[in-house]
Amino acid sequence: MDRMSKVEELIAETRLNDLIHKKEAEKNKNCVLWVLAIIGAVAAVAGIAYAVYCFFTPDYLEDFEEDFDDDFDDYFNDDDEV
Question: Does residue 82 lie within any of the structural domains?
Fold first, then answer.
């Protein structure tokens, strides 16, 4: 009978350790999940802010290139071939 009680105690202790380690692992997973969620939220906000910035910022280079092309065509005509 003494052996059975020791075996039962060992089994109970093993189950208790499993429960403790399971809760610690679950807590670590939860912490990692929160960190990844925060990083994802910050990245999403940054992406949206960049998209809004690009949408509302005028493209000055496009206007400059169009003006340059018009002036360049005036200097060289097809009649001036050598």
Answer: no
Residue in the block written with tokens 């009978």: 1
pTM score, two decimals? 0.48
Residues with pLDDT less than 50, the chain: none
What does the alpha-carbon distance between residue 72 and residue 74 come to, in Å, rounded to a whole number? 5
User: What total of structural domains would you count in the chain?
Assistant: 1
Residue 15 lies in domain: 2-77
The per-residue DSSP string of the chain comes to -HHHHHHHHHHHHHHHHHHHHHHHHHHHHHHHHHHHHHHHHHHHHHHHHHHHHHHHS--HHHHHHHHHHHHHHHH--GGG--
